Amino acid sequence: MIFTFRSAEEAVAAIGRTLGPSDWMEVEQDRIDLFARATGDFQWLHVDPARARAGPFGRTIAHGFLTLSLVNRFLPDLFMPTNLDWGVNYGLDRVRFPAPVPVGSRIRVTGVLMEARPVGPRTVQTLIRMTVEIEGGDKPACVADTLQRYAFLPDPA
Question: Domain 3-152 is classified in which CATH homologous superfamily?
Fold first, then answer.
């Protein structure tokens, strides 16, 4: 279920709220290969299925930064401002990759709204701790404290 909010005050009032989970998404080799091409990271663990079969994970794995980038793909499934003028990714405070994501795995994301603070007129900065779960896994693939800034339109009321 998506948490929606219309103002900085509503975001502040929701601190501590659990977000998600998102739907599951399969991580396919095509996505891994596209990420390798976009970043120039052609490490065989990611892009050489034949060699990876004999490697430490038994198959290719997603790049850690691919997993991190997918956090942004899932964010609108968890947390969605309305009455929005603009919103930007502001950065990351902490990122860890406790477990690799093997090709063919399904992942999903849950979140917790850890902080929300006004940073200007009708503007809020949020910190969401996003956890990427691997279906059937005992450790998360990624835990990232993500920062966003949202500016809201004046309330028409």
Answer: Hotdog Thioesterase (3.10.129.10)
